[in-house]
From TrEMBL:
InterPro entries: AAA+_ATPase, AAA_lid_3, ATPase_AAA_core, ATPase_AAA_CS, FtsH, P-loop_NTPase, Pept_M41_FtsH_extracell, Peptidase_M41. NCBIfam families: FtsH_fam. GO terms for molecular function: metallopeptidase activity. CDD domains: RecA-like_FtsH. It is a multi-pass membrane protein. The keyword RNA-binding does not apply. Residues 644-656 have a biased composition (Gly residues). Binds 1 zinc ion per subunit. The lineage of its organism: Bacteria, Pseudomonadati, Pseudomonadota, Alphaproteobacteria, Sphingomonadales. Acts as a processive, ATP-dependent zinc metallopeptidase for both cytoplasmic and membrane proteins. Plays a role in the quality control of integral membrane proteins. In the central section; belongs to the AAA ATPase family. Belongs to the AAA ATPase family. It is found in: Cell membrane; Membrane. Keywords: ATP-binding, Cell membrane, Hydrolase, Membrane, Metal-binding, Metalloprotease, Nucleotide-binding, Protease, Transmembrane, Transmembrane helix, Zinc. This is ATP-dependent zinc metalloprotease FtsH.
Length: 656
């Protein structure tokens, strides 16, 4: 492979208004109501009439215009001889008012203090502060709800959700290709449906099952199928949902989750990505009060502690079983570890059949052929393949999804999307063609190498060109001869550039090939014991670092050992380089032929490359036949010929 070196908030669910807007409207209504009550009551406590200055009031008394008054500490109200009402605010230091009233024959009386008015006055002054406190309380409550808290101070409430049939019922009929894992979990469903069938023979219901497998193999789908089949309450939660920014929240949520589960027993609790909370203890940077470890400790106690949790089955999923705490994996907590593997060819065919139910298929679609050409694909990869095929058919305005769409979708998933709009000079195209021809020719001459599926010089993904090889069958282990063949194939592109264009014209396009070859050689020496000098020992291993950061360390760190390791890695890569050089030097004419054919047709299938090597031409009936002369870099000519897509190859992606 030649590398390319070019370097609004979500809408609320449902049709109703946003809950935040509803709450703000309620609080706004309460505030306006309080203002209205204060204004009404405050106005009712005061007498209607003209407001007078205290000095004007005394003048009117002296002139004999006042008929009667009522005196209180806060206000003086009264009636004039013309029967008009008035009010004024008294001056408390004035002691001559009663004498003046008596001298002018004014009827006067006292009034008890108005405590209600004082209360309303105080309330009116406190109302803005009460409103601010209410708004702060409202926002705090909403934030806590957003964090999974059930109430105003409910940080420790569990975020587990009960799965209902409204969310899309999945059954074991929707799970294909992983029969052994499905059988293990079907037994748990049978336990729940008819426990007496097992208990009369002394068997006990399993307390937990751990689903282990690579990403995309169907672990979560299996759990949803159990929920659909069991007919009991099913709680689902993610491992990361336990841990919050506050210390002690995770352990509290674990307790609350099991309290809910006890109330609904028998039931199933599914914890997805349990490695987020179940990692081995001791990586807390010396902090014995680590929040994650507290959460794990509480989970261990709840699963199998002093108090038994009868009728609660814990199902968890992870793709990192190597980092889980040993106490979590023992029988009594997770009684079963169910491996969910990448499907084999029969499994892939069944998975494709499930996903193809929803597609309008053309008669030429054969799931077995597609399964044979997609080794190493997980269930999620196959679902994506079917989806990409349907999208391609829609883009081409077809009513049915044909085999051609599945082949094109497979190439897109394996090799990346084509970048036909990328502008490359003729020199770059020629160098890419010889680079990929070098890979392909070395692959044809290495018996242990996988067959070529397709070779292209159309830029795909991050690569300027690619040779995709697929094995003839599913591989579960790799032999030394195949690894040496892969090293030679990886070096083929760089060697071809050097032979054709010269040492000074070698490009940086082989960087990915060099990285692949170096990593493969390092694993052969340090992990797989394939070096005669160093013997069958492991010299490197992955370690779980602080805060979950993985790192690779050499277990034997002597200077002499490290020097030998580096020498052996270099020797293996240089042996692959020499093998590629021998092949391409001896068959330089075929290298020219293959490169010129790739320049003409851009993409060649494995069958077409084989035909070109045997007959010196490619037969594609929809294009003109016969050899066509094209120039070599050295000025000579080689024949090239007509077009047609050949059949696709078989096996797991192993592109070079």
């Amino acid at each position: 492979m030649r590398d390319d070196n070019q370097n609004q908030p979500p809408e609320p669910e449902g049709n109703g208004p946003n809950p935040w807007i509803k709450s703000l409207m309620v609080w706004g209504g309460v505030f306006l109501g309080l203002l209205l009550v204060v204004s009404m009551l405050g106005g009712g406590g005061q007498s209607a009439g003209t407001s007078l200055l205290y000095s004007d009031f005394k003048e009117k008394v002296a002139e004999g215009e006042i008929k009667s008054v009522e005196i209180s500490d806060e206000r003086i109200t009264g009636v004039t001889k013309d029967n008009e009402t008035f009010s004024t605010i008294p001056v408390r230091s004035d002691t001559t008012l009663t004498t003046l009233l008596e001298q002018n024959g004014v009827e006067f009386s006292g009034k008890e203090p108005d405590n209600g008015g004082l209360l309303l006055y105080t309330l009116a002054n406190l109302l803005p502060f009460l409103l601010l406190i209410g708004i702060a309380f409202f926002f705090l409550r909403q934030m806590q709800k957003g964090g999974g808290a059930g109430g105003a101070m409910g940080f420790g409430k569990s975020k587990a959700k009960m799965l209902t049939e409204k969310q899309g019922r999945v059954t074991f009929e929707d799970v294909a290709g992983i029969d052994e894992a499905r059988e293990e979990l079907e037994e748990i469903v049978e336990f729940l449906k008819d426990p007496s069938r097992f208990s009369k023979l002394g068997g006990q219901i399993p307390k937990g099952a751990l689903l282990v497998g690579s990403p995309g193999t169907g672990k979560t789908l299996l759990a949803r199928a159990i929920a659909g089949e069991a007919g009991v309450p099913f709680f689902t939660i993610s491992g990361s949902d336990f841990v919050e920014m506050f210390v002690g929240v995770g352990a509290s949520r674990v307790r609350d989750m099991f309290e809910q589960a006890k109330k609904n027993a028998p039931c199933i609790v599914f914890i997805d990505e349990i490695d987020a909370v179940g990692r081995s203890r001791g990586h807390g940077l010396g902090n014995s009060n680590d929040e994650r470890e507290q959460t794990l400790n509480q989970l261990l106690v709840e699963m199998d502690g002093f108090e038994a949790n009868e009728g609660i089955i814990i199902i968890a999923a992870t793709n990192r079983p190597d980092v889980l705490d040993p106490a979590l994996l023992r029988p009594g907590r997770f009684d079963r570890q169910v491996v969910v593997p990448v499907p084999d060819i029969d499994g892939r065919e069944k998975i494709l059949a499930v996903h193809m139910r929803k597609l309008p298929l053309a008669p030429d679609v054969n799931p077995r052929t597609i399964a044979r050409g997609t080794p190493g694909f997980s269930g999620a990869d196959l679902a994506n393949l079917c989806n990409e095929a349907a999208l391609l058919a829609a883009r081409r305005n077809k009513r049915l999804v044909a085999m051609q769409e599945f082949e094109d979708a497979k190439d897109k998933v394996m090799m990346g999307a084509e970048r036909r709009s990328m502008v490359m000079t003729e020199d770059e195209k020629k160098m890419t063609a010889y680079h990929e021809a070098g890979h392909a020719l070395v692959s044809l001459n290495e018996p242990a190498s996988d067959p070529i599926h397709k070779a292209t010089i159309i830029p795909r993904g991050r690569a300027l060109g690619m040779v995709m090889r697929l094995p003839e069958r599913d591989n579960y282990s790799y032999h030394r001869d195949k690894m040496h063949a892969n090293l030679a194939v990886a070096m083929g592109g760089r060697v071809a550039e050097e032979i054709i264009f010269g040492h000074d014209k070698v490009s940086s396009g082989a960087s990915g090939d060099i990285q692949y070859a170096t990593d493969l050689a390092r694993n052969m020496v340090t992990k797989w014991g394939m070096s005669d000098k160093l013997g069958p020992l492991q010299y490197e291993q992955s370690q779980e670092g602080y805060l979950g950061m993985g790192q690779t360390a050499r277990t034997m760190s002597g200077a002499e050992t490290n020097r030998l390791i580096d020498e052996e890695i270099k020797r293996l890569v240089e042996e692959g380089l020499k093998r590629a050089t021998d092949v391409l030097t001896d068959q330089e004419d075929k290298l020219h032929l293959l490169a010129q054919a790739m320049l003409e047709y851009e993409t060649l299938t494995g069958d077409e490359i084989d035909q070109l090597m045997k007959d010196g031409k490619i037969d594609r009936p929809d294009e003109p036949k016969g050899p066509v002369s094209v120039s070599q870099p050295g000025g000579s000519t080689v024949p090239k010929a007509g077009k047609k897509f050949g059949g696709s190859g078989e096996g797991a992606p192993a592109g070079a």
